[in-house]
Amino acid sequence: MGHGRVEKRECDVISQLDFLDDHSRWPGLQRIVRIKSERAEKKTGKITHETRYYISSLMGDAALFNTKIRQHWAIENNLHWSLDVLFNEDTLLMKSGNSAVNFSIVNKMALALLDKEKSTKMSKPSKRLAAALDDEYRSLVLKC
Questions:
Q1: Mean pLDDT throughout 2-14?
Q2: What span, in angstroms and rounded, lies between the C-alpha atoms of 127 and 114?
Q3: Sign of torsion, CA 67 70 75 78?
Q4: SS (H, E, C) 22-82
């Protein structure tokens, strides 16, 4: 529950994979996971349904997979938010060749360096600005 919506999730784990044609082509495949979600918007009452599938080499039950998948997306969403707030990634209009992917990789490396630098308790935006304006601080960040 959050952001003005209520979500119900159902997780199913399939471990009997004999039904897959030539499942030997997937070495290490142990489970297929299905997540069914129903989201209700609090303001509008609109209900949406979504089904997502995952493949995994992990052994585990539905509770484990449900937790791990939610944790993964929490990390992904936090990373995306940080990149958008710090580097305005959503407003960039790079479209030619690999420029968007390359720029995103550089941004992620910069974010990791800012996270790793612990000499000050500045916020990430403040650290980024300090690194841009202060040669000594930038050198400190780049040594991390």
A1: 83
A2: 7
A3: negative
A4: CHHHCCCCCEEEEEEEEEEECCCCCEEEEEEEEEECCCCCHHHHHHHHHHHHHHHHHHHHH
